[in-house]
Amino acid sequence: MLDVLRGAAILGTLATNVWIFATPGSEGGVASNMGGSFASFGDGVESVVRLLANGKFLSLLTVLFGVGLAIQYASAARRGQPWPGRYRWRALFLFAEGTVHFLLVFAWDVLMGYAVTALLVAWLLARSQKVQDRVMWWALGLHLTLMAVLTVGLSAQGEEDTETGQDVIDVYAHGSWADQIGYRLDNVLVLRMEPVLSFGLLVFLFLLGVRLFRAGAFGDDETGRRIRTRLLRWGLGVGLPLSVLLPVAGSGFFLLDRYVAGPLTALGYLGLVGWLTDRATRAGRTGPLLHGLTSVGRTALSGYVLQNVLCMLAAYGIGLGLTHRLGDGWWPWWPLALWTAVCAVLMVGSTLWLRRFSTGPLESFQRWVLRR
Question: Which residue among 181, 202, 211, 247 is least packed, with the fewest CB closer than 10 Å?
Answer without folding.
Answer: 181
